[in-house]
Amino acid sequence: MFDLIIRRARLVDEQLVDIAIQDGKIAAVGQVSGQAKDERLLDGTVYLSAGWIDSHVHCYPKSPIYHDEADNIGVATGVTTVVDAGSTGAADVDDLWQLTRKAQTQVYALLNIARTGIVTQNELADLKQIDKSAVRAALQRLPGFIIGIKARISSSVVGENGIRPLQLAKEIQQENGGLPLMVHIGNNPPNLDEIAEQLSAGDIITHCYNGKPNRILTPEGELRQAVKKALQRGVRLDVGHGSASFSFEVARRAIAQGILPDTISSDIYCRNRIDGPVKSLAHVMSKFFSIGMTLSQIIDCVTWKAAEGLRLTHKGRLEPGFDADLTLFTLSNEARPLLDSEGETLEGQTHFTPLAAVVAGQWTVTDEGKAKNVFDL
Ligand SMILES: [Zn+2]
Predict the structure, then answer these.
(1) What is the mean pLDDT of the chain?
(2) Which Pfam families does this entry report, sorted A to Z (predicted)?
């Protein structure tokens, strides 16, 4: 007897399947016979994918600048897992852990290499903020919650320190087992070429389609040589849309040249969620239909590719043994304006509507899901 069977779910390849869940894990996918304590029969139009993972969010409720509640950006919008990208450092990450334990959404953290995280906007302007032994102690206190480190390497953050904080981040990474490193890029200095040269396989560049001078493209619209080499070494690209870091023009040109993101993430927090231009991970994902990506490419970027980049080895795939994290959604076709972070608007035709998030077998139906009444609850 399974705990739950969802029947007639539509996968992104348009196959209709049943999914059985047992003890918080996926037990079977395909034509499932047998019984369950709970069964949900879908009407064949609702899509189901592995649970969406947002690789870059801000959900430390006490952050003075970038705060939000995990469930507002998580299960309420179909996202089953969020990764707080450096809101906290060694001094306050325990508080982030504590405050997110009651959330339905699964929360992980990338630890800011600066002790106090993003309490100010220039957390790496004082190198004394980078305390290697405090980072190591935090990693030992919260293994399984802190899954990597974050360094914001742009002029307003590093002040006069140039590339030095990134060199220290690489040392911290190597001294702690080579865990994932996410590097934020923004205004220069330091120059993106210099940043890219420091990065190695598995390192993640976030804000990869930003429209600032430190963009990945040259003024002629070609991929910078240093970024090209970094990608050849296995450096990963993360979208990290945010209030100021996503340009349709850059993304469209890059994607047309085959420079696709590894992960699509939102960089969401309460302000850009409520006022835009981010709104939700689903809204950010919808933008990629308009600039040259397919449904399965987009879903890959928030499921197995996100899990791979962050080494969440038990997530991201609809296969027996993986965590029973699922997102149910529909696609709607209608003309709606979409806005990037640079003030450019384009008309979107296809949009994601998340209906429910299932986390370790537990359901949260979104407001749209309730309105559509597609689950025989
Ligand atoms: Zn961010």
Answers:
(1) 96
(2) Amidohydro_1
Does residue 2 contact residue 22 with C-beta atoms inside 8 Å? yes
User: What pLDDT, on the 0 to 100 scale, is given for residue 373?
Assistant: 78
Predicted confidence (pLDDT) at residue 135 exceeds the cutoff of 80: yes
How many Å lie between the centroid of ligand 1 and the Cα of residue 330? 28
pTM for the full predicted model: 0.98
Ligand 1 (ion): residues with CB under 5 Å are 85, 267
CA of 150 to the centre of ligand 1 (A): 9
Q: Kindly tell me if the per-residue pLDDT of 374 is higher than 80.
A: no
* Whole-number percent of the chain with pLDDT over 90: 95
Start-to-end Cα distance in the chain: 20
CA of 239 to the centre of ligand 1 (A): 10
Q: Which domains does the chain have, with CATH numbers?
A: 2-49+320-372 (2.30.40.10), 52-309 (3.20.20.140)
Shortest CA distance to 241 belongs to which of 81, 85, 12? 85
Residue 376: per-residue pLDDT: 63
Q: Residue 120: what pLDDT?
A: 85
157 Cα to the center of ligand 1, angstroms = 12
For ligand 1, the distance from its centroid to the CA atom of residue 370, given in whole angstroms, is: 31
User: Of the candidates 79, 133, 131, 149, which has an alpha carbon nearest to the alpha carbon of residue 107?
Assistant: 79
Q: How far is the CA of 284 from the centre of ligand 1 (A)?
A: 14
- pLDDT band of residue 146 (cuts 50, 70, 90) is very high
Distance between Cα 4 and ligand 1 center (Å): 36
Q: How remote is the CA of residue 248 from the centroid of ligand 1, in Å? A: 19
Dist. CA 2 → ligand 1 center (Å): 40
